[in-house]
């Protein structure tokens, strides 16, 4: 049975965020976006202006964030009992093997490289939504 996903997109690039949102709008997936690790932390702990927000089912995390990196945020969340079970999918342009290794060592649930074309991005995100909303079993 498919369920409606709620995704937290942690992405500082407005163009990338707009493309991701465009796909999710087609898929009727709700998305909230923040642009850095500080906002992501405030969102997750419901600090203003994020009070009353819905707990995300999944976080899409870019690694190249301003200030604290996506790697640091991933490590911090996965080591915190309150957020260790949050599905965190890295969505980044980095193909560096060290970035991939670090992400999985910090317990990323998946590592996806942003495709160059919109159609490929749409295919990737459609598959992602199908997997996490239809096939994967959740705690919540």
Walkthrough of the structure:
This protein has a single domain (6-135), classed as Response regulator (Rossmann fold). Helix 1 packs across helix 5 (118-135). The protein has a 5-stranded parallel β-sheet with strand order 2-1-3-4-5, sandwiched between helices. Helix content is 41%, strand content 17%. Strand 3 (58-61), helix 3 (70-78) and strand 4 (87-92) form a beta-alpha-beta unit. The protein has 5 helices and 5 strands, in the order E-H-E-H-E-H-E-H-E-H. It starts with 5 loop residues before the first strand and ends in a 5-residue tail after the last helix. By secondary structure, it is of the alpha/beta class.
């Amino acid at each position: 049975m498919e369920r409606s996903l709620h995704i937290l997109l942690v992405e500082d690039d407005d163009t990338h965020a707009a493309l991701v949102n465009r796909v999710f709008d087609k898929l009727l997936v709700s998305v909230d976006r923040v642009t850095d690790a500080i906002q992501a932390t405030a969102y997750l702990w419901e600090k203003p202006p994020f009070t009353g927000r819905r707990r995300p089912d999944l976080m899409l995390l870019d690694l190249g964030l301003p200030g604290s990196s996506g790697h640091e945020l991933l490590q911090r969340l996965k080591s915190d009992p309150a957020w260790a079970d949050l599905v965190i999918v890295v969505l980044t342009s980095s193909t560096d093997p060290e970035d991939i290794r670090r992400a999985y060592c910090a317990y990323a649930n998946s590592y996806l490289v942003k495709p160059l074309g919109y159609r490929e991005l749409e295919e990737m995100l459609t598959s992602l939504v199908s997997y996490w909303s239809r096939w994967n079993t959740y705690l919540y």
